[in-house]
Amino acid sequence: MRKALFLSLCxxxxxxxxxxxxDSYAExxxxxxxxxxxxxxxxxxxxxxxxxxNQTIPPYITKDNATLxxxxxxxxxxxxxxxxxxxxxxxxxxxxxxxxxQANAFSDTNIxxxxxxxxxxxxxxxxxxxxxxxxxxFFWNERAASLEVQTxxxxxxxxxxxxxGANGDLTFNxxxxxxxxIEYYKELFRFVYGTEEITEVKIQSALAQFIRSIQSFxxxxxxGRSQVANDNQxxxxxxxxxxxxxxxxxxxxxxxxxxxxxxGGIGCAGCHAAPEFDxxxxxxxxxxxxxxxxxxxxITNTRAPSLRDLxxxxxxxxxxMMHTGVITTLQAAVGHxxxxxxxxxxxxxxxxxxxxxNGQRLNLNATEVNAVIAFLRTLxxxxxxxxxxxSDPF
Length: 394
Prior knowledge:
Domain Cytochrome c: 74-183, 240-380
GO molecular function: cytochrome-c peroxidase activity; electron transfer activity; heme binding; metal ion binding
Structural class: mainly alpha
Subcellular location: Cell envelope
CATH topology of the largest domain: Cytochrome Bc1 Complex, Chain D, domain 2
Pfam families: CCP_MauG
Organism: Flavobacterium saliperosum
CATH class of the largest domain: Mainly Alpha
């Protein structure tokens, strides 16, 4: 049997993955995949796949939630095609990339992203370093138990991609039939899984591999962290302002009985620990409880993306922040945490924001605000916006 048709099954309740990491792509005759070659001739070479599986990860990064579905070059290549393919929507107008754009750190500059039958109920979360998070659940309200489960939920949403099986929509099985009739998918699924059969589990596995491959470790922060033993040391490549901001970010605040800060830092790391800057799974909401559609409050949003690449290196925001998109600048983000209001009905506010039962008052001066902003900007890289392996292959 050809190496290209080797089927490696890595099974769990959530996924099926091809995990043949010793692929010899030189053994793959292009004539076996003529439709892939014709459609993606300038973007995908099955004989010379992009490196998704063995990217450099800094030694100080220890979290990895990809162990049950390891990234492979083959699987992530299929995931890339699926991620950008508008055929995954009911009217061929929307892809995953429509709401998660590479140019904006895989988020959207719109507050609500446009779907086939309306718009999303929350702002589209950035997809940076999802692999390196201790939080295993996805969506702002953590309704998906894993990234694998999350990947097909927008496809099955009436408003987003339209294969809901309700409200007059086709079903997900109809999508599978649709993709099964597309020649390049017949070849790609055979290339990855050894068979042309398409299943939801295979789609989930490939999409999750591609999304987890999207990593950003070429920031000023990473250049500095690689030169020291731990985050608490001054980074030699940082300005005095950036090091001050780092210290404020990492150091817990000292509060008086009224919740007013009297010393220490501002404690961002209590929810967004370095060096991954992901969200603590035990976090409550951050006091932003608005809704995009309708009225009332929503106190269930307790997840957040990594703080990496909140903005581009020039300070330009990668779209609005928070699930409502209500925050549009780093200054506004810092300002929000500077004065927390305990809103009526918000029974899920993170207790770290309510010292002594009162909404925290950080009492930041302009120098401190500017220092924290300067530090947050050091978390942004450049490669994630331009690397071809994460770009549109069509």
